[in-house]
Amino acid sequence: MELRKKQISFLITHYNRPDDLLQCIGAIKKLEVADSEIVVCDDASQKEYLKIIQEYEIDQLVVSTTNQGLAANINKGIAACQGEYIIYCQEDFLLNPSISSVLPECLDLLKKEKVAMIRFTSN
Question: Which 8-state DSSP code applies to residue 15?
Fold first, then answer.
């Protein structure tokens, strides 16, 4: 039996900042996006930080044994995501709740292949 893909994967890259990560996860959960998952890809954080983030309420944690840099960490995270679409952010980003109001339109544009990618900016 094949598993159905989630609609959205929230991919968060992380390195040694568990407090920021927890705030980022909290901001995502406040969005209340149905049919989504949270994937955290850690780039070989210190062991004490890994113990902390293993307790966080996420769907999947990908851990590297050696630090390979942000690009490699993003690529590992993308490979682990099961969503049809990926929203990527670093651990110190807090997604604005207003993103929920534009997500349906964004997903519609992607599904109709009017655009190949949508980029949200941060300040």
Answer: S
